[in-house]
Amino acid sequence: MQQISENAMSDESSTGGLARRLQMRRVDQSMARAQTQSKKQQQDYTGILVDNLRENGQIILVSDDMAFAGSLRELVCNTLKMPQSCISQQANAENLMRIARNAVENKKAPLIIIEQNLRGRDLTYIVKLLKIGFPELKVIILAKETDRQRFVLLHESGVDGCLVKPADSQALLEKIALTLRPNDQLERSLEWARVLLGQEEYLRALQVCTQALEQQSNASAVFLLMGDIFRSMKEYDKAVEAYGKAMGGSTIYLDPLRKMSELYAETGDMQKQIECLEKMDEVSPLNLERKIQIGELLLKLNQSEKARKVFDSAMKLSNRQARENVSGVAYRVADLYVSTDPETAASFLQRGLDARKEFWSMEDIATFNRLGILLRRMGKWEDAANAYLKAISVAPNDENLHYNLAMARLEGKELEGARASALKAMAINPDLPRKSSRIASNLAAVFMSTNDKMHAMPLLRQALEQDPENTEARELLANAEKE
């Protein structure tokens, strides 16, 4: 640090007159060139990802977020023209260690993208175990918007990258590429520029940033730092321009909006500060502190009615987060009991679902299914049927729920109800029996219980075509043919 001070050029000798204007002009030119280089930068990112997939074969996604999975497949399969087999999706993390071990034994190092929180379970500890066991693997963790302290903890767990959802395809491509092949030279340049900024050597810091832009890599990070430098120089218009370039046309990148919000707070422009915060809230509406901040600013501007609506929204969010925390704990406890005490596991699953009752969504369907299966194993078919009916109120067109309801009703000898549920499942998805021989024979058993041979016999023949060793289907078919 002493050497930096001795070699540092005094701002007093470089900020005035012609030298300053020439330096600022070079900065403007570099910023303009960086925008024209964005296509070349994307090509570089594309090459990194394609090369990695060709070498290691796969990205493993551990998530039940179908929207994100669709975006990833769109990027890999449509944009990069790579085969579908390059992406493997797991709805839970139970088999992740085994999958990773098999990959490493085959001398592969697939990229793993994993949810920080999946179905109420914090997976940070699994990531830590994964990185301890297989340090050669690269891991990106998916999270909803969170604070820097949380990201620091995630990095301490061994995470190679953090991606905040939602994320557009460009942000996704950039994050994956920089995780697979970090630009150490760029990071050194940015760190040097930050040191200069801390010493108030603003023009030298900008000079380092303009040189970093020439590297054609991660221009967003450079523009973000340039905005900070301009802000420290009280060049607020240029700071806003730099932050705008950092966004790169994507409103999903929240850091520039946050920086602009801080800038407007510094200049006393509360209305523009609110506009930035509201844009952030649209993209990521789960930040409770930001809602309270917006409401507070609206009160200062005497917009009391609008402030009240924001505070109401904050209260609803707070209530939801509290309930989700309760359900998350209940699900984790259920996992501990599921193999040794199914009845206690079922009771905790029920408590977790009850805590979320006002907010049931598609995310809860898997939990309802787990609860129903546990209750059926205990012979509590009626309770299981009620669980499936609650799930059907959320997802009325889920054929698996109607199929499971049919099985529960069959076990409870509610035969006509079982038949109605089976017919509904097949109406939603006529190919349901083709999923497995067991499903086909189970559906046939429902129809045979009401002497509906018209539906039962084709299903039994189909079950035997899929698995000639299905003895249950063979016996049911023999009995039906005798009758």
Written overview of the protein:
The protein is mainly alpha-helical. It is 69% helix and 6% strand. It has 24 helices and seven strands. The strands form two sheets. Strands 2-1-3-6-7 form a five-stranded parallel β-sheet, sandwiched between helices. It has a two-stranded antiparallel sheet with strand order 4-5. Strand 1 (59-62), helix 4 and strand 2 (87-90) form a beta-alpha-beta unit. The longest helix has 34 residues, at 304-337.
Runs in which pLDDT lies below 50 for 5 or more consecutive residues are 1-15
Strand order of the largest sheet: 2-1-3-6-7
Bulk shape: elongated
Q: Helix/strand-derived class?
A: mainly alpha
**What percentage of residues falls in helices of 4 or more residues?**
55-70%
Strand content: 5-15%
Largest sheet composition: 5 strands, parallel
How many separate helices?
24
Round the Cα radius of gyration to an integer and report it: 29 Å
Give the integer mean of the pLDDT values: 82
Tell how many strands the DSSP assignment holds.
7
What distance separates the N and C termini? 94 Å
Give the SSE map:
Elements: H1 2-7, H2 17-36, H3 38-56, E1 59-62, H4 66-79, E2 87-90, H5 96-105, E3 111-115, E4 117-118, E5 121-122, H6 124-133, E6 139-144, H7 148-156, E7 161-165, H8 169-180, H9 184-198, H10 202-213, H11 219-232, H12 236-247, H13 254-267, H14 270-283, H15 288-300, H16 304-337, H17 342-355, H18 365-377, H19 381-394, H20 399-411, H21 415-428, H22 437-449, H23 453-466, H24 471-482
